[in-house]
Amino acid sequence: MALTFLGIWPNTPDDGSPTIWVEEETGDLIIQSWKADEETIRKAQEVGSVPGHSTDVPDHETVIRLPANMLRFIPRTDSEGSGGNSGT
To answer: Are the beta carbons of 31 and 18 closer than 8 angstroms?
Structure first.
């Protein structure tokens, strides 16, 4: 697996800072960030996503909080806005 560094939290201390990489072959984003707290997870479960989809977080997944100023490091595609499952 080959990763390319995209960005790190500005003015970061020596450790524990949000960081983003991209996996070169797949284009997957690899994100290190803060774990969402229980209140955030509970609110996300209340809002839900698509009808009929479980709001449980499986053991092999987690919920992270990505600071807004890190969004600039996320690559954009030509078809921006057409990805993901909005449930529509």
So the answer is: yes
| Tens-digit pLDDT profile for residues 62-77 | 999 998 889 999 988 7
21 φ/ψ angles, rounded to the nearest 5 degrees: -125, 165
- The number of C-alpha atoms within 13 Å of 75 and in the hemisphere containing its C-beta is 15
Kind of pairing between the strands at 29-32 and 19-23: antiparallel
H/E run at residue 3? strand 3-8
Rg (CA), the chain: 15
Residues 33, 65: contact at Cβ < 8 Å?
yes
CA dihedral 79, 84, 60, 75 (to 10 degrees): 30
Q: Where are the domains of the chain?
A: 3-73
